[in-house]
């Protein structure tokens, strides 16, 4: 049994979707970041950085933070959604790191400047609007000749999809990125994704373009 500490953010959804896909039993602990619960003493004991998500694997005693590290841990624990060796393993890790180091941070800033504080910082808005479009273009080019980011459906897709699900906050029309749109809609149909999208609670249906 895994204890999942999470909230309704793309990084939180990454892990919830992964747990559903892996079929690993888990308990949900809501950490309401709008109320500052991530800074409570009991949660800081789990993650001193005060971020979600985090897990505790009660089978192994491992306590783990950072969403992509959790995905990698679950893939290796279950032996699924990550090739064991070869080029596809390397490519899966490559695109997992692409999401971790580029897509996620940039789109997080896009949420801040393009949606929550629109009109307050024109320079930052232009910067993150342009970089967001660049990253969507990169994703679209990668998916032009393949159904998923690296071979079969993998933790790389699980990592990127929840961020793309916030496309309205990025001021992105998915019709401008047809390969991303096809990939996004195909993954959205997965039952595990639908279930994970409701964790820690239902906020609405998966957004559709």
From TrEMBL:
Record carries keyword Transmembrane helix: no
Protein name per UniProt: Glutathione S-transferase
Stated family: Belongs to the GST superfamily.
PROSITE patterns the UniProt entry points to: GST_CTER, GST_NTER
Domain of life: Bacteria
Annotated ranges, domain GST C-terminal: 85-208
Domain (GST N-terminal) ranges: 1-82
Record Gene3D superfamilies: 1.20.1050.10, Glutaredoxin
Source organism of the structure: Phyllobacterium myrsinacearum
Pfam family, one: GST_C
SUPFAM superfamilies the UniProt entry points to: GST C-terminal domain-like, Thioredoxin-like
GO MF terms, alphabetically ordered: transferase activity
Keyword entries, A-Z: Transferase
